[in-house]
């Protein structure tokens, strides 16, 4: 019976927790980062009671400590399609398409995440998932070799795929199956210190692009970072070096603002890890690889198409004023440009709402007697309704490229023709990606409909004199 199935939101919450525990044991610096973020968040909430009240009204305060995203890179269409089936068991759907090739990274990506506000509230866990684009490798022999190596690996345990199939056939998993699924699926994301290729092959792949070696040379798509959410990324960035963590030079995304928009992110360098490479004579060869890094992020309000166009325009403007991408050398000048350019972006929730630049959720204030027939603006002006920013749940392509690059070393980046290919990505995925703007609009609409219904019920019931 369906009522005995575990809610996918619960499976996702378990999985997110298990992933965090595993990553803590694999990468001790992640624990340092969690500590740092928890301290900054506690301090921010204490110093900004208005922010604390806002996050309490939206419920975000309850999910803050469990909020994190991860990232993985897969090598083949089949791996991506199976990843979609595995994430579906956890109530995660592919949302959005990100083309990283213009930034010299031979991948395109989506974000697997929950889509309904109630599910996001239960567990906002998301995974930025990239598919290697072997077709962008110029060297044909190497391309074929990489494809051969990838075709020979299976990144899921047999049991994971069995349980995913059971989920599909039954429409859910019972408790014991769900728990087993979490433990089994976790194996796919582990770090393996033995490469599947020889040192020579690794070096050849690496010579094409470090990312290609990272995807092709290992047994599976190790989780390469897990990112907690901070309420003050400038403070967290300043705190990182004090704890012996070297952050990248520039915070990706918009500049600091009173009303945060979208997403700001910073990361620290990948760790060099010992790897054993396969030897032709059965003798392993010792070497190393940099795979895993750390990242923190601050999330702000989701922007409408109009708001996003303004964001993209201002970001372009700020970047056009420095030569090339921001780096250590021009970090201060870049941040100043960003501040200057974004002066044109309203920094006030009422203004963002009035100009239709951002998404909001509507809430009743508790004041009785509002006429549901009155317009939205009147109900707000008369104090029956209030609006709160709807948090951005997705990623940003330019920021993602910056995060990739800061962890791929400073070597000159490859140039790829700008050929975004959402259709090819969806074909590999075996499904269409959802449009994030539609999801935000739906949430906003549902919150308004609920308010109107409640006001209608109040109006329909006898009002106490
Ligand atoms: C993903 C980089 C992008 C983000 O938060 O934008 C990313 C990767 O390096 O695989 O994680
Ligand atoms: Ni990330």
From TrEMBL:
Keyword hit for Nucleotide-binding: no
Entry-linked SMART domains: DUF1338
EC assignment: 1.13.11.93
Keywords noted in UniProt: Dioxygenase, Iron, Oxidoreductase
Membrane-spanning residues: none
One Pfam short name: HGLS
Stored InterPro entries: HGLS, YdcJ_bac-like
Named cofactor requirement(s): Fe(2+)
Alphabetized GO MF terms: dioxygenase activity
First-tier enzyme category under EC: oxidoreductase
Family label: Belongs to the 2-oxoadipate dioxygenase/decarboxylase family.
UniProt protein name: 2-oxoadipate dioxygenase/decarboxylase
Taxonomic source organism: Achromobacter pestifer
